């Protein structure tokens, strides 16, 4: 049935309208809110939002930050790119076809995370949550001005993590605050926009990696005693925090967290670009420190491809996985500033690389994937991959 031939008595046909609307793309739904009050209230309702997210079959998208010169002025842009597939339904390239930049995000172009259609934008120690579908942007309460952090904490590392509470069906933002080896957790419900302190009985530790949510738990790597890393688990529903050991060879920065077959895993890839070697620890039971180990060697032709595009002054950064479980590896230039002796810390890309690598760990297969059709391509100063996400979220923040 065409939308132009809907019955005039809308209230009597609300179920039929709802069924049709759930099959439309989110971009169309944003326009159709202006059709009538009934349609607007339906599309914005919590029931419809959850049903649409459950039934939506939108393609996953790659999100990126660009900095480019326009009339001698440096400008920023937030883009998303849709995948282009070959005959075998394998991603062959990405095409930047959406500009998500809005004036209200000025100064907040560092994307720390993309999660279920919600994006966390940071400006040093403050943050905003951006809905990539509705283009709504909300400011999180300033952690610096809260009574949670003592005033004498001058040197601190603040990180924000978006996660979902499956028991109470809520989106939450977890903020971790570290000072050298001290750390505390802060939890906040996105809809209530308030911070509250979450008690932590674990040893003091410093968060190192962006949180990864799997099956209702938020995981990150942290330091308790240098140089040994630990795995920190935060149950999003009960808000309980626990610390677990990680394999010796899987310590940060040589290893990073990924999702592998719906399980938490640590990928150690420090020898990947030189020798084509990786190690994978799959946490069969993270709470009991039970894991299985897998080692892989790239085919010589794929290792040569990697060496062609990743020079000695460059490295690779893990930026999540695709729906097929392929690890997204982003090229970047090494920073000259070391955090501690023997460890080279990496900064976001300081030049534009319009490609990524997708590594299929199941098949031990790697390929280079181009990013096409970016605006101001030849004027771009930096291009940093922010995340990969396949959810269109109609949620009102």
Automatic annotation (TrEMBL):
Per UniProt, residues of the F-box domain are 15-50
Query: Could you tell me the superkingdom of the organism this chain comes from?
Result: Eukaryota
Which segments of the protein form a coiled coil according to its record? Answer: none
F-box associated beta-propeller type domain: residues covered: 83-378
User: Pfam families recorded for this chain?
Assistant: F-box, FBA_3
- What protein am I looking at? F-box domain-containing protein
Naturally occurring in which organism (per UniProt)? Brassica carinata
């Amino acid at each position: 049935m065409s939308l132009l031939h809907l019955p005039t008595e809308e209230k009597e046909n609300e179920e039929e309208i709802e069924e049709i609307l759930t099959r439309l793309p989110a971009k169309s739904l944003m326009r159709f809110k202006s059709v009538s009050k009934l349609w607007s209230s339906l599309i914005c309702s919590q029931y419809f939002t959850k049903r649409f997210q459950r039934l939506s079959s939108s393609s996953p998208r790659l999100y990126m930050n660009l900095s480019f010169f326009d009339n001698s002025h440096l400008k920023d842009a937030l883009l998303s790119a849709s995948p282009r597939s070959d005959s075998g339904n394998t991603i062959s390239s990405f095409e930047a076809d959406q500009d998500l930049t809005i004036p209200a995000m000025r100064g907040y172009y560092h994307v720390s995370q993309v999660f279920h259609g919600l994006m966390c934008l940071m400006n040093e120690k403050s943050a905003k949550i951006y809905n990539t579908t509705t283009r709504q942007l909300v400011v999180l309460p300033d952690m610096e001005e809260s009574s949670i952090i003592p005033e004498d904490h001058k040197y601190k590392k603040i990180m924000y993590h978006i996660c979902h509470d499956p028991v109470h069906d809520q989106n939450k933002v977890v903020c971790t605050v570290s000072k050298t080896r001290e750390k505390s957790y802060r939890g906040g419900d996105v809809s209530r926009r308030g911070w509250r302190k979450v008690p932590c009985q674990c040893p003091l530790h410093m968060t190192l990696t962006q949180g990864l949510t799997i099956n209702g738990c938020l995981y990150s790597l942290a330091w308790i005693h240098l140089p040994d890393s630990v795995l920190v688990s935060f149950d999003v529903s009960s808000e309980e925090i626990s610390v677990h050991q990680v394999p010796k060879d899987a310590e940060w920065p040589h290893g990073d967290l990924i999702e592998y077959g719906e399980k938490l895993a640590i990928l150690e890839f420090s020898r990947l670009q030189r020798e084509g070697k990786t190690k994978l620890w799959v946490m069969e039971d993270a709470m009991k420190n039970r894991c299985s180990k897998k080692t892989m060697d790239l085919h010589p032709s794929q290792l040569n491809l990697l060496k062609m595009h990743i020079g000695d002054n460059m490295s690779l950064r893990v930026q999540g996985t695709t729906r097929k479980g392929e690890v997204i590896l982003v090229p970047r230039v090494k920073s000259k500033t070391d955090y501690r002796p023997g460890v080279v810390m990496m900064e976001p890309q300081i030049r534009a690389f319009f490609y990524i690598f997708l590594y299929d760990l199941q098949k031990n297969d790697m390929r280079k994937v181009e990013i096409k059709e970016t605006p101001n391509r030849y004027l771009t100063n930096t291009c940093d991959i922010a995340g990969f996400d396949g959810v269109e979220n109609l949620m009102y923040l």
